User: What shape does this take?
Amino acid sequence: MYTRLNQAQPYALGLFRIVVGLLFACHGAASLFGVLGGAMGGGSIPAGTWPGWYAAVIQLVGGSLVALGLGTRIAALISSGSMAYAYFKVHQPEALFPLQNGGEPSAVFCWVFLLLVFTGPGALALDRLFSRGGAESGEDCAREQAPAVTV
Assistant: This one.
C-alpha cells in the first residue's frame, strides 16, 4: 500500500499546489478587480494602496505562478512572506491566536506556501517543460551531472 502512495506522491503534491495556487489567485483577483465577491465583501482595493493593493498583486501573480508550476519555490517564498506580514501586521495585534484574531487564512497560506518552498512543485508543473530533459527538479539534474565519488 505504501509503495502505491509513494508513487502517487508527486501527483498529489502537484494537485495540492494547483488548488492552493488557484485559491490564492482568486483571493487576489477579488481584491484587485472586485470579482468573486470583491475585497472584504464588495468592491476592490484602490490601486497603489499600501499594503492591501500590493498584497493583492502578490496573491494574484504568486497564486497563478504556483498553480501553473512556474518558478514555484520563489513564488511560494514571496507568497509565504506576504501572508506572514499580513498575519503579524494585521491580525496578531488584535489577539494572540489565529482563531481569536481572524488570521487563520493568513496563517494557513503562510505555512502552506512555506511547505511548497521545500517540497517543490511536484508533478504537473510547467517548470518541468523548461528544465533539462524534463527532470522533475533541479536536484535531479544536479545528481545526474555530479561526478562519481569513489572511496
